[in-house]
Specification:
Radius of gyration: 23 Å
Number of strands: 12
Distance between the termini: 35 Å
Shape: globular
Strand content: 5-15%
Order of helices and strands: HEEHHHEEEEEEHEEHHHEEHHHHHHHHHH
Number of helices: 18
Number of domains: 2
Largest sheet: 6 strands, antiparallel
Length: 491
């Protein structure tokens, strides 16, 4: 494949050009022995990139940031953030680079971004590098989330660098190439506000409106409309997480996107047994980002965004507070509506007019089911798949998962009276998720050079709703000796 294949896609440097105060020009660290581990050919095609070119030596160097295509302006982005509640005025891309933007075949502008590409001026004490396991984790989980229909950054490739990286032991280094609608974060606005440069804050908001919420530009107060749009997007996103049992693990304000996409799959996991207090991050010792806390933390993060944007809502800050509080107050209702609607769909229940007896009964059934799940260690994903069998008349698989059989029988009788749609349930309740023991098995093998378990698991989770014979082990919970599960951010 010749370099001509590259010329079919033009890189842009719009972020670097329009928001230079938030962009430090930088170059990725050279990889001594690059080796392509996995390439998302389908995504490459969506972006207008030739997969065969990306597999070539020059294409692999592009994926590492070592070959800079025409139009690309690699930059490390500056942002601030609250990390576990503590404010840091300057964080930024310590081991990441924005190569630039490309316009896909659908006409959408998307970022091409590197993770693990070496130290930047924001690296602080870090080495700026990443290792194979965590980069493949982000690839796997982000693709699973995309297949589940949850807004997410995507993974284009993982390339091994050929450079050992010191963590607890020496591990093989790697770079992730990922794709997003943008990498604008709550922390981007916090940084711009901290500079007290109102022109920068306004240009950042205009950039966000142009890229993500163009309809806000036509509102009476475009910046308030932008904030309202982000509130709604995050309410729906976190509801999606909760519905599939996903725990992000590190919901710092620098990890909350303006676009409403999930970003930064570090210490993340899907719940096995239903547990509102589930925490999988090794550093979240206080449970700040536990499963049940995610909606509360999302609202808290959005309050920080409102604080950063206040001067844009009204030049008189006292007059800016009331509309900001009103807009933020929409989050709880929007989240609750999205979550309840999703739970009713997971139970196969048809939409009913608000306030009707059917709607009230459906809400009570949702509450009753959550109480049943809390009562004992019930595998969250398997329970809902088994419940569709109960909708078809076979109670045994789901009933056998709960402790209080009498309570289940009473609940199931009321539920079946509403004639749940079993086919609908199978369309929204996944048979396959990236189960934690399978993820660890695949990453351990890949770290040792065997990518077959990773590839098999990736194929399975890319079609999560279609149960297939021969894949039973991918539906099973963790073995007893798997123990308490922890994940790490990989730095």
């Amino acid at each position: 494949m010749t370099a001509a294949a590259e010329s079919t896609v033009t890189f842009d440097g719009r972020f670097a050009r329009e928001l230079s105060e938030l962009a430090v020009p930088w170059q990725a660290e050279e990889a001594p022995e690059p080796k392509l581990l996995v390439l998302n050919g389908g995504l490459a095609g969506e972006l207008g990139l030739d997969p065969e070119y990306l597999r070539s030596p020059e294409g692999v160097r592009l994926l590492l940031g070592n070959h800079v295509p025409e139009g690309s302006t690699p930059v490390a982005q500056a942002y601030a953030g609250h990390q576990f509640g503590g404010y840091s005025p300057l964080l930024g891309d310590g081991r990441a680079l924005l190569l630039g933007e490309v316009t896909g075949v659908d006409g959408r502008l998307r970022d091409i971004h590197l993770k693990g590409s070496g130290r930047t001026p924001f690296a602080r004490a870090g080495d700026g590098r990443a290792v194979v396991g965590p980069m493949l984790r982000e690839y796997l989980v982000s693709e699973a989330m995309h297949a589940l229909g949850i807004p997410s950054t995507r993974s284009l490739a993982v390339v091994a660098t050929g450079r050992p990286v010191r963590r607890d032991t020496m591990l093989p280094g790697a770079v992730l190439t990922r794709v997003a609608s943008s990498h604008l974060r709550v922390g981007s606005f916090q940084y711009a506000r901290a500079t007290e440069n109102m022109d920068l804050l306004r240009r950042l908001a205009d950039h966000a409106i142009s890229r993500h919420y163009p309809e806000a530009a036509r509102a009476g107060n475009p910046y308030l409309a932008l904030f309202e749009s982000v509130v709604a997007a995050q309410a729906n996103l976190v509801a999606d997480w909760m519905l599939v049992g996903f725990v992000h693990g590190v919901m710092n304000t620098d990890n909350m996107t303006i676009s409403g996409e999930t970003i930064d799959y570090g210490p993340c996991a899907f719940m096995d047994a239903f547990n509102p207090a589930a925490v999988y991050s090794s550093i979240d010792v206080g449970g700040r980002y536990a499963y049940a806390n995610q909606p509360v933390i999302a609202e808290w993060n959005l309050a920080r965004l409102a604080e950063a944007m206040l001067p844009l809502f009204n030049e008189d800050q006292e007059q800016a507070v009331a509309p900001a509080v009103e807009a933020l107050g929409m989050f709880r209702r929007q989240y609750s509506d999205a979550w309840f609607a999703g739970m009713k769909t997971k139970l196969g229940l048809a939409e009913a007019p608000a306030g009707s007896a059917e709607a009230e009964e459906a809400s009570e059934l949702v509450d009753g089911l959550v109480a049943l799940l809390k009562d004992g260690p019930v595998d969250y994903t398997s329970f809902f798949r088994n419940l569709s069998q109960a909708a078809r008349g076979n109670d045994r698989p789901a009933r056998g998962m709960v402790l209080d059989l009498a309570a289940f029988d009473a609940w199931a009788g009321r539920w079946r009276a509403l004639q749940p749609d079993a086919d609908l349930m199978d369309r929204v309740n996944p048979a396959y998720i990236p189960r934690n023991h399978l993820v660890e098995e695949a990453l351990a093998a890949a770290t040792d050079g065997d990518l077959k378990p990773f590839s098999r698991l990736l194929d399975v989770v890319r079609a999560p709703f279609h149960a297939r014979p021969g894949l039973e082990r991918y539906t099973e919970g963790a073995p007893e000796d798997f123990g308490s599960y922890q994940t790490f951010c990989g730095t």
